[in-house]
């Protein structure tokens, strides 16, 4: 497909704000579950990127907490992680200084006495490094430990600010259904005030996700057509080529609907659908998101479908089926693919279906939002299309590529040159993040960690948002639990998912857009 390129001028880039004034106060970041993969692969590389850009306070320490009896090897291991996963040069001049900020404290999550020891240790570090009372507790443990850790922090008086900000960051999954999420919220709020709570959805840390609001509200030309008068439907796809990657026990209890649709995809949907917030402050943005979710009526079970991958091939390499994955039941009924059709009952969106699909071991890795516009009211060129190299005139389509090939493409029809007749072909106007701004090594956690340290909740999930999304999906999860799937596995690894996914969208006379990624 022909392409029209757009670019950002070097002058524009040199004037871009660097955010240098957003430096948090002195504090200690305490990571529970620090021996897990997340800390080494994402959190520490992100913290080091903040150090590189001068966004960490001078008086700052990182304390890893986990059950294993580790010592100094923890900091060395984190250093290796920063180099391997953060794209950092092992000889980077700032690395030694940064690693000195890291220490480790062994603790059994369910031993109240250990928390007293932790408090003493944090106070010691604070005095030694002139840090004061600022503390951010990051819960990156298995979810069953969240409640106990929070309770123990409260019991030791560590949840209340003395001289500095105190907050708690909670990784997903936040509950596994409506009741458990409500219970956890009650628990968290009995110890921490809601303004201290940062529920992570790492999608919100992605530049391309934040750019949805910029695209919609820093530009004047899209908003007038951003509604039911011009938009036919919206598709959101989160396709992965990876399988469960050794996370079998976790995934067996989760499944695609809980793992990705109920949180990441609903966040994407809300950003596409919300009304313009009055400012980019937590309160306004969250309020608008909530209004979107509240306007979604319950989903008929018929409008939610599931699948599980069998053996197949990814990029030409054979891969096993889900039921043969490590620590997965050979009769597992867990879905590795889920698709839903949602409606949003408000004036902007009534009658515009939103189709969401997420799956593992699909043909291509791509997370994309595709806004499908309506056909023009009168197709005056249609009858001449037979002579064109393209089969038919296609409606405008705006594609927001969240990852990879981060960017935005707008498809429109253009006259094919030199043909004797008025032949029309679709072309793309394409914005590519890497081309415009250069490749970034940020993993999304930089922004989230920085915001949590600053106490800015805009990019974090609110209690009410979490509950309302569980309320929407819990009935489907229950219906699925009551009716075990009979046809699993129902798609081959490396395909575009089960037939029922295609039927779901075909019922509305539409089809999934499967040429994902940069096509021009
Ligand atoms: C996580 C899920 O929240 O998101 C994983 O638990 C999934 O199963 C991941 O693979 C996808 O995130 P990303 O950033 O790789 O798209």
Radius of gyration: 24 Å
Which shape, going by the Cα principal axes? globular
Task: Count all strands and give the number.
Answer: 19
Low-confidence stretches: 1-20
What is the residue-mean pLDDT, rounded to a whole number? 91
Q: Determine the number of helices (DSSP H or I, runs of at least 4 residues).
A: 15
Classification by helices and strands: alpha/beta
Binned, the helix content reads 25-40%
- How would you sum up the major sheet? 9 strands, mixed
What amount of the residues lies in strands?
15-25%
What small molecules are bound in this structure? 6-O-phosphono-beta-D-glucopyranose
| Order of neighbouring strands in the sheet with most strands | 1-18-17-16-15-8-14-13-9
Instruction: Please report the distance between the alpha carbons of the first and last residues.
Output: 6 Å
């Amino acid at each position: 497909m022909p392409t029209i390129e757009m670019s950002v001028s070097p002058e524009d880039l040199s004037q871009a704000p660097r955010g240098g004034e957003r430096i948090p106060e002195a504090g200690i970041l305490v990571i529970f579950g620090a021996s897990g993969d997340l800390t080494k692969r994402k959190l520490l590389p992100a913290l080091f990127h903040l150090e590189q850009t001068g966004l960490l306070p001078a008086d700052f320490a990182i304390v890893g907490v986990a059950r294993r009896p580790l010592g100094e090897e923890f900091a060395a291991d984190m250093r290796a992680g920063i180099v391997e996963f953060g794209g950092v040069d092992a000889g980077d001049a700032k690395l030694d200084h940064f690693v000195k900020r890291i220490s480790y404290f062994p603790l059994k999550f369910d031993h109240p006495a250990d928390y007293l020891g932790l408090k003493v240790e944090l106070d010691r570090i604070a005095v030694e490094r002139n840090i004061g009372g600022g503390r951010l507790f990051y819960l990156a443990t298995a979810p069953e430990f969240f409640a106990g850790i929070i309770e123990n922090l409260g019991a030791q008086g560590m949840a209340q600010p003395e001289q500095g900000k105190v907050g708690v960051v909670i990784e997903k999954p936040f509950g596994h259904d409506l009741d458990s999420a409500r219970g956890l919220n009650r628990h968290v709020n009995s110890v921490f005030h809601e303004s201290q709570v940062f529920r992570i959805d790492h999608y919100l840390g992605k530049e391309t996700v934040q750019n949805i609001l910029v695209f919609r509200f820093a530009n004047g030309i899209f908003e007038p057509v951003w509604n039911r008068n011009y938009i036919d439907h919206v598709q959101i796809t989160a396709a992965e080529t990876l399988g469960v990657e050794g996370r079998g026990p976790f995934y067996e209890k989760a499944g695609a609907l809980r793992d990705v649709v109920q949180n990441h995809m609903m966040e994407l949907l809300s950003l596409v659908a919300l009304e313009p917030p009055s400012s980019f402050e937590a309160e306004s943005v969250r309020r608008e998101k909530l209004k979107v979710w509240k306007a979604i009526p319950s989903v008929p079970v018929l409008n939610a479908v599931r699948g599980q991958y069998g053996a197949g091939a990814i990029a030409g390499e054979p891969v096993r089926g889900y039921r043969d994955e490590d620590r997965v039941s050979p009769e597992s009924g867990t879905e590795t693919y889920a698709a839903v059709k949602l409606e949003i009952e408000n004036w902007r969106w009534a009658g515009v279906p939103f189709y969401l699909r997420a799956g593992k071991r699909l043909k291509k890795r791509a997370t994309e939002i595709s806004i499908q516009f309506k056909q023009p009211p009168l197709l005056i060129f249609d009858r001449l299309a037979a002579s064109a190299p393209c089969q038919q005139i296609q409606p405008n389509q705006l594609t927001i590529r969240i990852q990879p090939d981060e960017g935005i493409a707008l498809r429109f029809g253009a006259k094919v040159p030199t043909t004797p007749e008025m032949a029309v072909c679709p072309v793309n106007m394409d914005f590519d993040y890497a081309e415009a701004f250069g490749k970034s090594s940020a993993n999304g956690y930089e922004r989230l960690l920085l915001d949590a340290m600053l106490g800015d909740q805009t990019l974090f999930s609110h209690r009410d948002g979490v509950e309302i999304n569980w309320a929407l999906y819990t009935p489907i999860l229950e219906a699925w639990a009551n009716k075990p799937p009979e046809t699993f596995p129902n798609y081959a690894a490396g395909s575009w998912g089960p037939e029922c996914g295609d039927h779901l969208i075909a019922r509305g006379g539409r089809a999934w857009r499967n040429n994902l990624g940069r096509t021009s």
